[in-house]
Amino acid sequence: MAYVARPAIALPEHVVTTDELCDDIRRAHPDLPRLEAYLRIARATTVKTRHFTRPLSAPTVSGSATIEERNRAAYEDALELAVTAGRRAIENAGLEPADIDAVVTSHTTSWTVPSLDVSLVHRLGLRPGIRRMPMATVGCAGGAQAIVNARKDIVAHPGAHVLVVVAECLSTATYNHADTSRESVIYKTLFGDGSGAVVVSGDPRWTGPSVRIEDTFEYVLPDSMDRYQGRLDGTGLHFDSTEAATRALDDSFPAVRTWLAGRPLDFAVVHPGGPRILTDAAKALGLHPDPATGDLSHAWASLAEHGNLGGSAILDVLARTFTSPPAADSEGLLIGFGPGFVLAAAHARWIGDDS
Known about the structure:
Blueprint: E1 2-4, E2 8-10, E3 14-17, H1 18-28, H2 35-43, E4 49-52, H3 67-92, E5 102-106, H4 116-124, E6 131-135, H5 142-156, E7 161-169, H6 182-190, E8 193-201, E9 210-220, E10 228-233, E11 236-241, H7 248-260, E12 267-270, H8 275-285, H9 297-306, H10 313-323, E13 331-338, E14 342-351
Parallel strand pairs: 5-6, 5-7, 12-13
Antiparallel strand pairs: 1-8, 1-9, 2-8, 3-4, 7-8, 9-14, 10-11, 13-14
Helix pairs in contact: 2-6, 3-4, 7-8, 9-10
């Protein structure tokens, strides 16, 4: 069995409101046709605040930094957040760095070799012979996919302790005034920076609750390559989508329901990719839809307070679930979505303090 400890979340210091972003977009594009209509749509993301690693006025955020500068900032800042989250996650699991047998990392917002997995071996003091599973282009599916991969490692190595670390600096990637499409304005206000980490163990050492992973599922939606995708040019990394992207979740959920095969869902940890994703997920899974009191309230709260944190967002939702948990022995779902269109999911059981 694979057990998930309480996640750790690391957020940068600069809190930026949606009002501040809208004002900055107006400043950068005063003559953009339909700008106010775009901003109204952007506000409908329900994001109130998000954290950036650097001030909104920084050249690598709202300025005209080169792609080299943006790439360097995205990696250096993400690494610092990853180190903080990784250390806390190991502590949450009652372990020492030398106890970690494998590390799974996800980082999409910069190109760096060596990457996050190797850097964390040095910075966290992990064993030189640790198994490494780096993921570089998974995007928003990163956290869920990393947990799925951690369970695979535990199946192959019973009793192993696997550290999952996801870190993204989306402010340097998607907040780019070279982009002026309706979708880009929405993404400027949707995303935030942050890192999440968690230990998945076949031999849990911590006290307190955990999530036991009982089954996993991975799915690539056919003919969906262009629905969400990254694009690199001389001004930086960009994130694009098509109108068909809004239907991706609905198109994927028949496969999810077939996999679930009627198993009960007493709780759900869903990637807060945006309001449409959360409302569609609630409908598809037969969950109570109210953002404040429904089954996805933790996801809605994460979205409002932190924005979409990319791959680490689902770990933030999971951390909130630990703070306000379901009943012991409840069955639930953890699911994340990403460009491709792909999803990774786990059917899980909540293990309470006394279980």
